[in-house]
Amino acid sequence: MPISCHETNSTEKIRPVFHSLNAMRGIAALAVVLFHTSLLTGNMIVPGGYLAVDLFFIMSGCVIAHAYEKRLAETMSVREFAARRLIRFLPFYLIGLVCGVVVVMLSMSANTTAAPPIADIVVVLIFSLMFLPALQLPASSVMFPFNVPAWTLFYELVVNLLYAVFRRFLSDRVLAIVAAGALAVTAWGASRHGDMNFGYTLAEAPEAFARTVFSFALGVLIFRHNRNWRIHMLPVMVITAAAFLVPVPTLWRWPFDLAVVALMFPGVTALLLAAPSNNLTGLFTLLGDMSYGIYAIHYPVIGLIGWFAQDVAIDRMVLATGTVVLLIPISIFIERRIDRPLRSRLMKGLPAFIAR
Q1: Nearest to residue 262, comparing CAs of 338, 186, 156, 162?
Q2: How far is C-alpha 4 from the chain's CA centre?
Q3: What is the dihedral of CA 293, 295, 300, 301, to 10 degrees?
Q4: 263: domain range?
Q5: What pLDDT, in 10s, does the model give residues 113-127?
Q6: What DSSP letter does each residue of 280-299 carry, written as one string?
Q7: What is the mean pLDDT of residues 3-25?
Q8: Which residues, 6+ apart, have CB-to-CB distance to 57 below 8 Å?
């Protein structure tokens, strides 16, 4: 899931902003949104949109290592790191959760015979408020029923915490071994499912966790061995976007997905990490500001729009396009007027929390 490419607050020294990664995060977030608009259209517009998740994890490894590796080695505690990461995710996560609850309530009101028991819904909500999967549901059920894509945020938080706890032992060699083992499990999962669109359920936890670990570990290694590349960013972004769009025969889907995740995405991230800024910095910043918010809320918002438009005579492609166009300014507005100020207030209370 998308993360900020400049993990700072007003009391800290300003760190460099990776504008190219910001732009790529925005493009990847849009790929996920367009993938899920199939809920409105019935047709897959971006067949490989789910692969953006792996690109998010790789970029996360780069940015987290850049922002925290030195501080974790010197002054920052694991407790503070965990609190910072949770604060980064929390506002938009809660907004997405509220939207998801509304969708479920609307669905229940229309089909009371198939509605789950209220007690189950309350328990799932309690787990969700604690940022935990719905452990009381069958393993085949979605981990976060109110907002399905939240499974990626959960795994990223887990892997972030493991990174902070074991950072001192994570030499390049250890990270490479961990990444290789995780890649093997990921490849097994991809071959078993026929693609890399897995991770939503508890039954898929081993391969979903491995998928996260592989990309995150690779991202940390890419940051540690970053080189100055003089490249043109736009061709790299266009080629990456094409990987989401290209239709692949079913037989070759999982090998294609694995090649993209294991070979293409690491190369793309390494190139963009070192790419210089240019006159598109403003646009790239806008894409970055939009990315996490649109990712965190798009699924339940698509559900809400689908609910209200189910009896409206409107072309489904027009509806899907309008939904995406609507989500972009909404996400930017919430990020700047709600998410950012709220995170700033929570950060101000962080020293008192850590001192307890």
Answers
A1: 186
A2: 11
A3: 60
A4: 19-355
A5: 666 788 888 999 999
A6: THHHHHHHHHHHHHHHHHHH
A7: 63
A8: 152, 156, 159, 211, 212, 214, 215, 216, 219
Is 5 part of any domain? no
Q: Report the C-alpha gap between 75 and 137 in whole angstroms.
A: 41
As for how many domains the chain has, the answer is 1
Assess whether pLDDT exceeds 60 at residue 3: no
Residue 10 reports pLDDT greater than 70? no
Asked, for residue 36, whether it belongs to a domain, the answer is yes
- Residues 301-340: tens digit of each pLDDT: 999 999 998 888 889 899 999 999 999 999 999 999 999 9
In sequence order, which ranges of 167-204 are alpha helices (DSSP H)? 172-193
Domain for residue 8, yes or no?
Answer: no
Q: Is residue 256 part of a domain?
A: yes
Structure tokens at 179: 């990444």
Contacts 24+ apart (CB under 8 A), 184-191: 184/210, 185/210, 186/210, 186/211, 186/214, 186/258, 186/261, 187/258, 190/254, 190/257, 190/258, 191/254
For the chain, first and last CA: distance in Å? 31
* Nearest-5° Cα angle at 215, 212 to 216: 80
pLDDT 10s digits, 268-303: 999 888 776 666 788 888 999 999 999 999 999 999
Q: What is the pTM of this model?
A: 0.93
Cβ 242 vs Cβ 27: under 8 Å? no
Query: Does residue 65 contact residue 273 with C-beta atoms inside 8 Å?
Result: no
